[in-house]
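S.,

Sequence below, as promised.
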Amino acid sequence: MGTGGIAKGRLLVTVVAIAALLIAVSSVISQLSGPKVYDAGSAEISVGAGDHFEIRVADDRTDGFHWIIAAPRPDPAVLEATGNHLEGDGPPPSGKGGSRYFDFAAVGAGRTDLRLLRCRRCAAGAADENGARSLNFRVTVG
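The prediction came back faster than expected:
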């Protein structure tokens, strides 16, 4: 192989290494920035297919109420619930309040409704419980 071939080979290796580095950096930045967070007042949510996002609601762990995804459930071809987690305002036992985050993945293009319900028993008729609260969202995946 002549010096021209060696130089081309080194150039190719360098280009591939730079491309791999850029992909790795992009992935790390994406993971560090985390999913977009929407608050309870965000009635209209627009995301792209494949996006992950969260909805944040106030959650007082001492009043016996908790948040659920209520029926009718969102269209699974459009939106998938991937879990939820609580972030307290302070360490237990003093930190009684906090925020509940519902995690979602936008599966495919379309529009679906999402309803969160704050209830005690969360059985049939839970929306009519004294102190129950519901939040409605329209999620559009483009």
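The mean pLDDT is 86.

Coffee later?
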